[in-house]
Amino acid sequence: MSNFATYFKVVRIVPTIVHTHNHGTVDLRSMDLEKAKKLYEDKFPYLELTEAGKKDLYPEPPAPTATELKADIKTATTRAKVLDLMKVGEEFTSVQTAGNKKLSQLDTNE
Question: pLDDT confidence of 23, banded at 50, 70, 90?
Fold first, then answer.
């Protein structure tokens, strides 16, 4: 079994050779990891991530820090962007303070 099976599982069909319009002939019994990743990213309907695939190949990005959010607020040019950033960082008082300050600046410039 190739290492692709560690990260992907075949769903909805029996693992076999399939002929597709978009991807040509694909052997779902064995393939290299890069081919499996490409198929998955192209929304190939017969591959699903395993828990290892979710963890190792496509982990969720870490939540932004208060420092990162404040820097983004500082460079934001619209109220909508500032409000979005404030929502993401709603648990940080410093982000709310920076957001309110930026909103005041934007209001003054309008």
Answer: confident
- Cα–Cα distances in Å, from 15 out to 12, 27, 52, 97? 9, 8, 19, 55
Place of tokens 């940080």: 92
DSSP E strands: which ranges in 41-87?
A: 47-49
Best CA proximity match to 54, nearest among 104, 85, 8, 108: 8
- Return the pLDDT at 19: 92
Cα distances (angstroms) measured from residue 5 to each of 30, 53, 82, 90: 8, 9, 43, 40
Cβ atoms of 1 and 36 within 8 Å: the answer is no
Q: How far is the C-alpha of 90 from the C-alpha of 42, rounded, in Å?
A: 35
For 50-61, what is each residue's pLDDT tens digit? 999 999 999 888
